[in-house]
Structure formats: C-alpha cells, structure tokens
Amino acid sequence: MSYKALDPDKTALLFFDMLNQYHTNDEPLVLNCVRLREAADAHGIPVFFAMADHRPDGADAATLYTDTGYGLEPWPDPEHGAGGVRRAMVSGSKEIQVIDALAPKSEDYVIKKHRWSAFHQTSLELSLRTRGVDTIVLCGGSTRIGIGSTAYSARDLDFNLVIVRDCCSDSLEDTMAQYMERVFPVMARVRTADETIAMMDAGKAG
C-alpha cells in the first residue's frame, strides 16, 4: 500500500483513554473520533480501545520519583506526594469507561493497561499481529503521555503509524504543537481526521 493510502486489511484504529474521566460526548475532538470510527467500520478496519485500569488500593500503579505532576506543578512534598495512581481510574468505575459516543462493540478489542504505553504487558501486539495489522491509526490523549509512549513503542515494534492530530488532546497546548510538528513526523504520518478518512477511502478503492 502506498504512502497516501491505508490498506483496510492491514490497518487498525486505536483509541487511547477515550474515557469519561477525560472527555465528553459532544466535544469537537470526540466528534472527529466518531467520524473516524464510522469510516473504519465502513471499511472493515478493526477498532481497539486502550483504557486505564487500576486496583482501588493503587497497588498496581507506578510510584516513582518525579519533579512535577502532570500539570508541571512541583510536588510540595516529593517524599509523600509524588507518583501513584489517580484514584478515579479504578477498575469497574464509571470514570474509566469509554465514552458513550465511542462505546466499544462486541467485535472490538478492549485493552486494559496499567502503564502509559498501550503495549506494555498487554495483549495489544499479539492481537494486532494475529489480524495481520502493520499500520496503526492512533487517537486519544494525552499526547505527551499515553499517545507519546504508545507511539514510541509502536515504532520500536516496526508498526507504521498515522497519528490523527485533531483526534488527540493534551492539557498543554505548546506541548501538543511540539509533538505534532517536531516529534511525531519522524516516526509517523501526522494527519487530520479528514485526511485519514481519505487515506482509508483510497486504500479501499485500491
């Protein structure tokens, strides 16, 4: 398949943490994701959802020393406040369910993850290889955390990537721009939802 097309037999659509904790059903990013989902369904492209999933006591979370939290605010007490799991991201809770607008269907793949990368000690790679997938269309958030770590993992596993910039989010706008313009282009094709759908159409026609 060419640079400008996506072979439906070798492509998968991966939504990362499109969860109630982070998104609402009517925001522009979600509406773009819905259009992408509809195009994937129309072309028989399998859909994957990676979602955070943690024990209520946080015992399966990484507790690491860091200088700041996700918002880049320094920890007031690094010995006792740094790291750990967000207690809202608990297995079975409403917060970690995929938003209704993108609710997984019976044929979809739901990948429960315990670290930033959707590949880390999950069944994602095995499921992709079994389907003959060599290209991942990646969406979700946050760009500098989950999307970034998953993209690096995918690249090191020799998957082609299309990262859909208007289907990704980050709380830091300057960081979002840096990744989309300075980081991801060296490991992926960075496209809009409209451009990605056109690539799906081209692959089906081809």
Descriptive account of the structure:
The protein has 206 residues and is α/β, with parallel strands linked by helices. The chain has two domains: 11-53 and 89-205, 3-Layer(aba) Sandwich (Rossmann fold), CATH 3.40.50; 61-87, no CATH class. It contains six helices and six strands; from the N terminus they run βαβαβαβαβαβα. A six-stranded parallel beta sheet has the order 3-2-1-4-5-6, with helices on both faces. Strand 5 (160-169), helix 5 and strand 6 form a beta-alpha-beta unit. Helix 1 runs parallel beside helix 6 (193-205).
Number of strands: 6
In CATH terms, what is the architecture of the largest domain? Answer: 3-Layer(aba) Sandwich
Task: Flag low-confidence runs.
Answer: none
Which sequence of SSEs, written as H and E, runs from N to C? EHEHEHEHEHEH
Spatial strand order of the main sheet:
3-2-1-4-5-6
According to CATH, the fold-level topology of the largest domain is Rossmann fold
Number of domains: 2
Compute the gyration radius: what is it? 17 Å
Query: What does the overall shape look like?
Result: globular
Measure the end-to-end span: 8 Å
By secondary-structure content and strand pairing, the structural class works out as: alpha/beta
Most strands sheet: 6 strands, parallel
The count of helical stretches stands at: 6
Strand content bin: 15-25%
What is the CATH homology-level superfamily of the largest domain? Answer: Isochorismatase-like
> Helix proportion of residues, in percent?
25-40%
